[in-house]
């Protein structure tokens, strides 16, 4: 089975959305991802909020600024999606 075939058959998407602010979207997304990771699932979180609250749930802002933020712009998004993915290990 090819990797593409495997992904099409086994990958699931969960979107946490609501038009109103302050209803817990970030909290639900972060905790759901943490729980699924703890259960052994591979997780990809995409934080599209300009405030980056979901990102900062997992990465300290100063670490982001010094180690990860370089070239993480909208322009770079279109040039290389993979540059936005970085590993995070769940430590229980």
Describe what you observe in this structure.
With 92 residues, this protein is mainly alpha-helical. The chain has one domain (3-84). It has five helices and no strands. The protein has helices spanning 3-10, 25-38, 55-58, 61-68, 74-79. The mean pLDDT is 79.
Q: Roughly what fraction of the amino acids lie in strands?
A: under 5%
Uncertain stretches: none
Radius of gyration: 15 Å
Number of beta strands? 0
Number of domains: 1
| Helical segment count | 5
Tell me the span between the first and last alpha carbons.
33 Å
Measured as a percent range, the helix fraction is 40-55%
Question: Gist?
Answer:
The protein is mostly helical and 92 residues long. 43% of the residues lie in helices and 0% in strands. It is built from 5 helices and no strands.
């Amino acid at each position: 089975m090819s990797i593409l075939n495997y992904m099409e058959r086994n990958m699931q998407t969960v979107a946490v959305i609501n038009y109103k602010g302050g209803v817990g979207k970030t909290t639900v997304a972060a905790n759901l991802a943490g729980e699924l990771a703890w259960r052994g699932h591979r997780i990809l979180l995409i934080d599209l909020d300009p405030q980056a609250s979901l990102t900062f749930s997992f990465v300290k802002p100063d670490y982001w600024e010094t180690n990860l933020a370089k070239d993480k712009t909208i322009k770079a998004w279109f040039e290389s999606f993979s540059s936005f993915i970085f590993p995070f290990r769940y430590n229980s």
